[in-house]
Amino acid sequence: MIEIDPVERIGSAPAPPPAEGDYVLQARGAGATMTLLVDRSQLELLSASIVSMLSGERLTGQDDALRAADVRDDHVDWRVGRILLGFDEDRRLFFLDAEELADDEADRPPASVRLWVEPRQMLALAEQASELLAQGLSRCQLCGNARDPAEHVCPALNGQSGH
Q1: Helix, strand, or coil (residue 98)
Q2: Would the CA dihedral through 56, 60, 64, 68 be positive or negative?
Q3: Could you tell me whether strands 112-117 and 93-100 are parallel, antiparallel, or unpaired per DSSP bridges?
């Protein structure tokens, strides 16, 4: 497992082609940079989980920590399969564990990373992600999933499209 401790900057952005419609999550710190490809639902859930975990917390610190990092370059290390978000009470830091999406044909175990992030940085990431997601695809009124303008296959209509 790769570990970035501490994360100095963290941010999200739309993914570069050919992964359009997805997003990247990039963390920099301790001389390392990780750029992970996540889908819309993963970014939504991450953002909502951060906000939920921080509800009622009073955050203090530098104002510049409230801005999420701008994502640099178009390199993506790997696509995320699983994300785990937690909080270490002793360190007063979030930890974000991400595991590469498993490839049945790969001859190695999935890569993984643990990011140690300050609460204010996570709040800034959640706000940045919410803004990005609001600019994205519209939501289906029946199933709540993102609607691809080309074609939406709706589970609420048993996979039928056309709405």
Answers
A1: strand
A2: negative
A3: antiparallel
8 A C-beta contact, residue 126 and residue 50 = yes
For 98-130, the pLDDT digits (tens) are 999 998 888 899 999 999 999 999 999 999 999
CATH code matching the domain that covers 2-137, chosen among 3.30.2450, 1.10.3120, 3.90.550, 3.30.1220: 3.30.2450
Q: 79 to each of 20, 22, 45, 72, 94, how far by Cα in Å?
A: 13, 10, 16, 17, 21
The DSSP H or E segment spanning 40 is helix 40-54
3-state helix, strand, coil in the chain (%, to 5): 25, 35, 45
Handedness of CA 82, 88, 91, 92 (dihedral sign): positive
The mean pLDDT value of the chain amounts to 84
